[in-house]
Structure formats: structure tokens, C-alpha cells
Design brief:
Chain lengths: ~400, ~400
């Protein structure tokens, strides 16, 4: 038993003994040929996840090849290459400064080279780069490679809602799951305790324990003492919540900006959680209701997102200043975008196509406030559930 | 149709039309003899609820007797009686200053007189006064009177967990439901929008619509444009959440005080919600899982409580100062108590009796930190779900 496994067993402690949801008798089998892992992406969240993964690949040498490749979009930092800085000083000085990275994490500027002979790819790049990356990877990835997408959310087009993990599967022909949770990157990088959810559906061509990626392998790859992982099957559930939480956060920003206090913000989150669940059940009937209220990627990520972050800030400023969303975004986010502003429009258009706008009064109210200048003080009326009038 | 019902119909607006959960065709029947309502209690929350109730009794004269009695524990305020101040100046200057009360709300210092010929009693007094109040009321309340308890939570004794609503039923022989939600009293009194949950189980001796209290009558009694009410059956569910949320809030205070950030607080809330649901299923199998994540008294009240309040503050100070719970409580709360400190002990003792401590690792960790000085930085290990080790 490795030192890491030893430590994992130790941390389970006496308090966990006999817990119903724990199953400490389940064992992690050594891989016939240790899995080689590559992380694609090296921004704030990408580098953080690469750190987590590299720590575990070093800790479980029977399961993972110790060296973890991280594809880095090469940049010049004061005359030095970013990859060289990462590989010699073990810091991503541009996107994750002051955090020491494990020395088995190797930055590679060559995308195709970084996935050579790989078994597991972790995608962690900004949403808008995904099509280009997938295009470049085509023909260089074996169909038995498995993937996890850390990209949030889904795309809504004329034909409906597509999960980003499904996009990766379609483009590259590989099985792809997702990782999502209440994870502000900097807090995870600093090893402040948090939780996350990994969702992965075992494919039909699964080659057997020790030969292929299963839930235990994924737990070993991502779980750390400071980063607790729950592995489930429901890829759709966690992806839906990852996208729609931003719309709910706009609603929280409005009521905060109006000075309505904690009761109102909690009410928006409650209504929002209900609409997220309804959206999942309507468009991804395979998603499980429990995912939304039991998993970090569900209710916990919703709470973190609604406690602060870009969407709340933009909406709050809209309420206090009377300016429109785009002015507020420009003023606050320095060229970045509040994802909820885009998502609420995509969702509105899709729901209109389906004739289901009225089933999602909060999403619709947020859309109307952002795009049609609907008075935000009417929000309560817009989402009210009325079921009485006198005869 | 009254003006109030007119307004209610208006506010439903076009956005609500066709909503699945709304049922605007359901009508509120005029009562054969309008229901007389009394509120027992006149503290901060008691006076706020009395204001809500009095507004609705005035608005629906076909359903409720316009005059609402509020029993007030008489006090002398600079030589004037508190009841006289309320009845002449329409303010509860001591417990809810600067809020104008409706003139149909009548303060009464005589408990027995306040419930004369009453149909509906709303209990809203501090927990510790309940036995004495019930004792005084015995023999003065007809068995057909219906009650709603706004008191939070439950009592844990050697024989298990008893809901406060059940205590009222046992003591007075009357059917009793509960009201609970994400409701900071001052925000409700100021008519900032919030939501609440009313739970009431229709009794076997129900005398028929228009003659007895049903869900529509309760909605009319409590729902306001600024106070949205959902009426359900699950009294146990909302009461359990109302008590256990305070234990979860202590956990949030610990991780906040340790400087672990938003991820950690959201994780505690997620784990806490799961344990609240498990507690409900174990000891009140009639309670519904949906109550905890769909209702204001569930997830929303949990979020509001964990965003601030007494329990968070005490636990945060414990973390930052190293002082014990009782010192922190004394320092911060000016003689009031952080309910979670009592509840976590009662719950621990009850779970030990049942041999179920290990099913509730967060509740147990909070108890051990408060009562046995267990190091709070071990919290993540104490609640970790581990399900792997290498062969």
C-alpha cells in the first residue's frame, strides 16, 4: 500500500467508521499499465486542477503514470517562455502566482505531443476555445481515451441544449464526463477545503477494472484531503446546474441591489433551484433530481455563485445605478463577461421554441429585466405562485 | 370580489398564466361565519406575523373577522402600558419600533380573553414560554380551534424527538400546523419581499369548506404581496429543518472563522442539508424529501441562517479567538443564546441512544468541537466520504 493510500485510510478516522455512504472496503486496483493523464488548459482553474491531478498521480504510482502533461498556450513572460517558467520554477506566474506546482507536472506547448499515448484527458479551457482545440486533436486521440470536462455548462442552439461533454464525445469519438462543484479556483489552489462532483458514465466498450477508467480511478485522480470528490453518473445534471446557476445569480444580484436583504436572496435561490431541476427533468429526463440538491455541483455551487462573483456584481450594479447590463459589465469586469447574461437569452429563446417559457418564471423574469428593461421591483409578482381568489 | 382579491388576481400577471404549480382557477370560499384569529406573542417576530395576519383579515372580510387580537405580555414603557401604546399609536415601540401596525390589530394583555370565541390561534412566543402558556390555556380552547405554530424546531427528550406543534396538540387537544421560512423578522416587517412555508395537516374532524380551516384559508391568512406563502402538509419536515439548520450554521461559522472561504461554507451547507434530510427520513418517515429542497422552510431558511445570524457569529469567534462556545456566546449575544449549541447536544444524545451517531458525521463533528474541544481544522476529515484504498 502506498503512502498516499495509507494517509487516505488514516484520514477516514473513527468518526467515519460504519457510515452508510462510505464503503471503505472497496479497494482501488493497481492498473495493468498505469494510466497516463494530460490536462489541456493552464489558466487559473486549469492549473489548479493540474496541480490536484499531478499530486494524485505521484501518490498512486500503481494506478497512474507519475508524469502529468499540461498543455499550455505558450506565452512570452518578460522574455521567458511560460512553459519554461512552469517546468523550472514550478509556478504558473501568470495565471496562478504564488502556488507551487508538483515537479511531476510538465508544461507542454505542443497540443498534439501532450496527448501522445494518453489514457485520460482533462479538459479545462475557456468555453470559446473548445471547437478549435477539438479540431486540432481530431485523428490524434484513440477511441479508448477517456475524458473529463471541467468546462461549465452547455450550449443552446436552434436544435436544443447540448452538453459540452457531449460535444467532445461527438467531435473526438471518446467517452467524456464532467467535473463541477463549489470551487473558487484560488481557494482550491491554496488547499482550503472544498468539495466537487465528478460525473462519468461507464461506456459500453469498458475494458474491465485495472484496464480502464471507472469511478474508483476517477476518485483517486481528483480526491485530495482538501478537495473532496463525489463520483456519480449524472453528467447532464451537473452540467445543467453549472450553466443555469449564473442566471439565478443575476436574480440574487437584483434583489441585493434593491436592498431587500437575505430573505429575498434565499428566496431567489430556492425558486432558482426548483427551475434548474425542472429544466433538467424536461430536457434531460435521464438526469436525477438528487444531483441538484445532494451534490457539490448542485446546491453548493449555486450557493457559492449566488454569494458573490461576476453575475451577482453586475446585477447589483444594474439595480443600484439604473445602468443597463452591458454598461455594468464593461464597468466591472474589464473585458470579461458575466455568463448569466448570455445564458438567460439562450435559455429564453430555447424555451420559447418549446412553448415552455411559463414554466420558468424566474429565468424569464431575469431575461426580461436584462433585455427588455422590465422593472426589477416587479420580480416577486413575476414569480408569484397564486392559487386563490374569492368567489 | 373584494379589492384585495382583485389585487391578488392582478399581480398574477401574464407571466404566471399557465404555470404548472399555480392553479388560479381555485377559488376561496366565503366563510359561513368569518374566522376569528388571535396571535399569541408580541415580540419581534410575533408582532411582524400579527401585522401580516391583520392586513389579510381586513382584506378578506368574507373569510375573516376583521379584528385580530394579539396577546401581549404586559410591560410598563416609561409609565405607559405596552398594550395601550399599541392600541393607540399602532406601534410596538419595544419590539418592533418604527413599523406602523394595522388599526384592526388589537393588543390584549389577558391571555384567556384574547382567545375567546377564537377559530384560529397563531403561536409566536419564545420556545421556553410554551409550557406555561399551554397550561394557562387549558380548558379555554374549544377542540375545533385550529392553530399554527411559528416556534422553530423540536424538543429532544429521552423518548425521542417531539415537534412543538405536536406538543400544542397534546396539551390543548387542537390540530396544529407550523409556519417557517427564510424570514428575518425585520425584513418582513419592512415589507421587503420574502417567502415562507405553512404546513398543516387537515384533521379527521374537518367540518367542510367555508366552515373550517383548509389550505386556501391559510394561504389567505398569511400570503401578502411581500410575503409569499406556500402551503403544504409536511409539518415534520419544516420543523426539523427549523431546528437543525442552527447546527449547520455553527459548522459554517467554524470554516468561515478558519478563513477557508465560500467553497467550504457551501460544502458545509450541502453536507448539512443531506444530514437534515436523513434525520427526517429516519425519525419522521412521513416527512417528504422535497420539503427540504423545495420549500422556503428548507433550503432557503438554511441559506439565510448560514449567511449570518447568531450561530454563525458564535462559531466564527470560537475559530478566530480560540475561546470556548460559552465565552463567545456571552461576549456576542448579550444574554441571548445560540440555539445550535443546545440543539447539537440534544441531537447527539438522541443519536447515541439510537446508535446512529455515525450516520450524521457533520452534526457529530459540530458537537465534538463545541463540547469536547475537538480541533475544528479536522472537520473535513471528520465528514469525509472515503471509498477507496489500494490493494
Amino acid at each position: 500500500m502506498s503512502a498516499a493510500a495509507d494517509r487516505l485510510n488514516l484520514t477516514s478516522g473513527h468518526l467515519n467508521a460504519g457510515r452508510k455512504r462510505s464503503s471503505s472496503s472497496v479497494s482501488l486496483r493497481a492498473a495493468e499499465k498505469p494510466f497516463k493523464v494530460t490536462v489541456i488548459g493552464s489558466g487559473n482553474w486549469g492549473t489548479t486542477i493540474a496541480k490536484v491531478v499531478a499530486e494524485n498521480c505521484k501518490g498512486y504510482p500503481e494506478v497512474f503514470a507519475p508524469e502529468v502533461q499540461m498543455w499550455v498556450f505558450e506565452e512570452d513572460i518578460n522574455g521567458e517562455k511560460l512553459t519554461e517558467i512552469i517546468n523550472t520554477r514550478h509556478q504558473n506566474v501568470k495565471y496562478l502566482p504564488n502556488i507551487t506546482l508538483p515537479d511531476n507536472l510538465v508544461a507542454n506547448p505542443d497540443l498534439i505531443d501532450s496527448v501522445k499515448d494518453v489514457d485520460i484527458i482533462v479538459f479545462n479551457i475557456p468555453h470559446q476555445f473548445l471547437p478549435r482545440i477539438c479540431n486540432q486533436l481530431k485523428g490524434h486521440v484513440d477511441r479508448h481515451v477517456r475524458a473529463i470536462s471541467c468546462l461549465k455548462g452547455f450550449e443552446v442552439g436552434a436544435n436544443g441544449v447540448q452538453l459540452l461533454s457531449s460535444y467532445i464525445t461527438e467531435e473526438l469519438g471518446i467517452q467524456c464526463g464532467a467535473l463541477s462543484g463549489a470551487n473558487i479556483a484560488t481557494e482550491v489552489a491554496q488547499e482550503h477545503w472544498s468539495e466537487t462532483t465528478v460525473a462519468y458514465h461507464i461506456p459500453k466498450d469498458f475494458r474491465g477494472e485495472g484496464k480502464d477508467v471507472d469511478h474508483k480511478v476517477l476518485k483517486a485522480l481528483f480526491h485530495r484531503p482538501y478537495f473532496h470528490v463525489s463520483v456519480i453518473e449524472d453528467v447532464a445534471g451537473i452540467s445543467i446546474c453549472g450553466a443555469l446557476k449564473n442566471v439565478v445569480a443575476l436574480g440574487c444580484g437584483f434583489v441585493e441591489g434593491l436592498g431587500w436583504g437575505n430573505n429575498a436572496s434565499a428566496a431567489i435561490q430556492r425558486v432558482g433551484l426548483g427551475e434548474i431541476i425542472r429544466f433538467g427533468q424536461m430536457f434531460f429526463p435521464e438526469s436525477r433530481e438528487e444531483t441538484y440538491y445532494q451534490e457539490s455541483a448542485g446546491v453548493a455551487d449555486l450557493i457559492t455563485t449566488c454569494a458573490g462573483g461576476r453575475n451577482v456584481k453586475v446585477a447589483r450594479l444594474m439595480a443600484t445605478s439604473g445602468k443597463d447590463a452591458w454598461e455594468c459589465e464593461k464597468e466591472l469586469l474589464n473585458g470579461q463577461s458575466a455568463q448569466g447574461l448570455i445564458t438567460c437569452k439562450e435559455v429564453h429563446e430555447w424555451l420559447e421554441t418549446c412553448g415552455s417559457v411559463e414554466d420558468f418564471p424566474l429565468f424569464e423574469a431575469v431575461y426580461q429585466i436584462v433585455y427588455n428593461n422590465y422593472p426589477m421591483k416587479n420580480l416577486p409578482d413575476m414569480i408569484e405562485e397564486l392559487d386563490l381568489h374569492e368567489d
